[in-house]
Write a structure and sequence with these properties.
Length: 407
């Protein structure tokens, strides 16, 4: 099988889809540039602070850029946030108190949040602090509006959580239009409940973000979309000013909150990352579209389809064969820049019950915006593909993966 020929032929059929992505990239690039101009970002903002991090003008400018991109009241963008899951954990503990109720309306969250919430026992979980949890499953890949409304008439959750990306589930990721609709329905019943959106993998996949459709607070990782492959770690939290104040005081300490936290030279990378993010996300989307088109032609079930509206950068490929998941993932690793000679094998990973296979030949450990592929070794044996700093590198990775599954 000539994988290069297959890819080149596919590109001819995908011109219209790629044009849509280019147009989206332009609109999101303008949004970012406008935020830079509004906040008069200058070289002085690349300066660094140590110790307490008092009066860090670069940190302030960076957070204001994120605030304005998301159309939020305030933002926290910190290297002290290790990951998206850490940012979600901090936000939960900031907003919830003993006897409060957390409600997920997108089903069971990511595996890495199970011990945070207390779905899986942990003495440091929300549950251990007397915080209650409940969830409502999606129905036919959409919110169960009737059940949500009925639940809110009989219960008073403090926070409603929406996870847009699918994680390792088989459900579809949640589009911004569906987020908008469910928020409108919730507000008809409860105007006070805090609506929190886990936006990981979804930023810049559309030109509207959750705060713009009524969410109160929104969380994401900087080693995914908005780091642009440049941020070496970190996460962001944007939303209402009063909620961001609570988050800041949970991240650092009451009374100091956002006013402390040394940047240690990270400002330039955060700013350069968000500046590059629209193009990097568009490259990831093109890579996902190419993979969807080709792998469907080769007889595998893919989701989303190549011409389907997307909510995130993730492409789900169902192989129904553990060996093919392993080979495809190994092919992505072989087509990467870093550790291409490493052969990924399924193994235990903190936060997950199943063995995980992961290809991430990336410059930043665990970076999902760089070309990566992973999945749990459980039926129906699915590989989750995401990322691609440039489309060309993404294309080369797909060629490598196709060659490996046909060895």
């Amino acid at each position: 099988m000539d994988a290069t020929k297959i890819v080149l032929e596919a590109e001819l059929e995908l011109k219209d889809e790629f044009k849509k992505i280019d147009d989206l990239c332009f609109r999101n690039s303008k949004k970012v540039l406008d935020a830079f101009h509004k906040n008069n970002v200058s070289e002085i903002h690349f300066s660094s602070t140590t110790g307490y991090g008092y009066n860090d003008i670069g940190r302030e400018a960076t957070e204001n850029v994120f605030r304005d991109i998301f159309k939020a009241e305030d933002a926290i963008v910190r290297n002290q946030l290790v990951s998206g899951s850490h940012a979600l954990n901090v936000t939960f503990f900031a907003l919830l108190r003993p006897n409060d109720l957390l409600l997920s309306i997108s089903g069971t969250p990511y595996d890495t949040l199970h011990e945070v919430i207390g779905i899986k026992e942990n003495p440091s979980s929300l549950k251990s602090f007397g915080i209650k949890y409940d969830e409502i499953e999606l129905v036919n890949n959409d919110f169960d509006y009737d059940k949500i409304i009925e639940y809110l008439k009989n219960n008073k959750p403090k926070v409603i959580e929406i996870q847009r990306s699918r994680g390792y589930s088989t459900r579809k990721s949640i589009t911004i239009d569906k987020v908008k609709k469910v928020i409108e329905e919730i507000r008809k019943v409860d105007k006070d409940v805090i609506i929190m959106v886990d936006n990981c993998y979804c930023e810049f996949v559309n030109d509207v973000e959750p705060i713009e459709v009524g969410a109160d607070i929104c969380v994401g990782s900087l080693i995914k979309n908005l780091g642009g492959g440049i941020a070496p770690n970190g996460a962001y939290i944007v939303g209402r000013k009063d909620l961001i104040k609570l988050v800041g005081e949970r991240l650092t300490l009451p009374g100091e909150g956002k006013d402390v936290g040394p940047t240690l030279g990270i400002n330039r990378q955060f700013l350069q990352g968000i500046y590059s993010a629209p193009h990097v996300v568009s490259s990831s989307l093109k890579t996902a579209i190419l993979a969807a088109y080709i792998l469907e032609k080769l007889g595998y079930k893919v989701d989303p389809l190549y011409n389907e509206d997307r909510a995130d950068i993730v492409e789900m490929i169902t192989f129904n064969d553990p060996d093919k998941v392993i080979k495809f993932t190994q092919g992505i690793q072989a087509g990467s820049a870093i550790d291409a000679s490493v052969l990924p094998i399924p193994d235990d990973m903190p936060g997950y019950d199943d063995k995980i296979i992961m290809a991430s030949g990336s410059f930043t450990q665990g970076s999902s915006i760089e070309l990566s592929c992973d999945g749990p070794l459980r039926e129906p044996y699915i590989a989750y593909l995401q990322g691609g700093l440039t489309y060309e590198y993404g294309k080369l990775g797909i060629i490598s993966a196709i060659e490996w599954i046909n060895r």
